[in-house]
Amino acid sequence: MKAPTKILFLEIDAGDKVLIQNWARDGSLPTFNRLLRDGLVGDTVSVRGLFVGSTWPSLYTGCNPARHGIYSLLQLNPGSYEHKLCPTGEHIKREPFWNYLSRAGRQVAVLDVPLSGISPGLNGIQTVEWGAHDANYGFRAWPPALKDEIEERFGTHPLQGSCNAIGRTVEDFAAFRDTLVEGAARKGALTRHFLSQGNWDFFGQVFTESHCVGHQCWHLHDPGHPGHDAGLASAVGDPIRDVYIAIDKALGEIIADAGEDALVVVLAGHRMAHKFGATFLLPDILIRLGLAVPVAPATNRSQQQGAMARLDAGLTRAWQTIPAPVQRRLGGIRRTLRRWFDARPEATGRAAPPLPLPLRKLNPSLSHCFLVDNGHAVAGVRLNLKGREPNGLIDPGPEAIEFGQRLAEDLKAIVNADTGRPIVREVVRTADIFEGEHLDILPDLLVEWDDATPLGSATAGNPGGSVLRVTSPKIGTVEGTNLYCRTGDHRPEGMFMALGPGIQPGRLDRMVSLMDFAPTFTNALGVEMPDTDGQPIPELVAVLREHAEKGAAAV
Which pTM was predicted? Predict the structure, then answer.
């Protein structure tokens, strides 16, 4: 007799829990409505301050970033001021929970978990980045022959490459929406196919289409966003809602195929809302405070790289203005140019790509502190410590703590020149919130920006709200224009819904950490996952374990 799937884990990457609940109530998302009505619902929170690069590694290792060592795809090379690409599979210091399940003989299917690497020899199947928002590797699979099987049966994901684009037209946004809707549908079909192929102890799939559409289309969804263009929104509609509806439909079909015996855990692990923050102004602020030194004039090499990046962006903009019939005729030429651009060392990973602009503005070796990559909602600052950095300027210990306190006071004194609101909510020492043997890999300070005022973009939608002016007695007035095309950004809060035999409908009265899910899954399947920061969720473990035991007895 075929055993039922014991744990079916489905994730809506960066799915906003507020939108999910609102659209479930109005009938737009019937699958989520059922989950919220009949399931156990709980609020979740990601790791503080590092939730962009560390959310997924923390979820699947059950450990905080100071123990798994990942905060970004672009991390500082220890003992230097150089940044390097850090594909997660090679650089993470802890194993994912599915490795423990596999070694214990449990059969697993792990599909498209972001920021993960292939686990060779896995007892089951795995895909990485068939459809992904953050790309470490491109599409890979285990066993290797699975890649060919998927491409032959389902093709490639409709969205290839970065979802970022500037100056999208009505037609561009409509095509982008349709691509993501098709991607969610195709991912649902792929999931259902492999769900039916094995007696899975654990089966997981992640829908990343919600992540892409949230970043790119928040200004179309939210009429209060400073980049909202009423005419554009009227013509395109709400792409976020359309993509969520497509994901909801796919989830409903997957859950139905899994059967009544399946125990389903659906997670929207961290939210999406309007973009905010002043990371793009922070280098100038640190220079005004006398704590950082700007870089010298660009070298010929960096000038060449910048020129190539501008040429690439200009050609992309020009292509987007060409009518579709002409695009079809010129498609071969464009593909040749695209292959040439993508073959450059900085594009292939053979050399580090150009740094985000804020990181390029400072000379780390001459500065008391400098920026490291940590997304936009929370800035990562590293101190130039003696004995750790090549040209350290600050003594570790009391001097470093005092430096951080002074910097926090100076940053919290800065206000938005137009609203009078402080631009910084809090400055946090990573050593105060994380413990672990890899703490020194992380930023030393996390600058949490106030998110009350949405930030517009000069390259997406209406450019309103893209200019930010900040002021304080120490820095005077610093002004800049946000050129990044994303109009939505992350928040650490999320929610989970569990549905199946033995699950009692209701809502937890406490927040659950994303680090709790890995030990929950292993514990429920009778496998030890030692030394995690997360704790098994008691309300789920007993039910999951009972369900797993019944499934084993049915074989």
Answer: 0.89
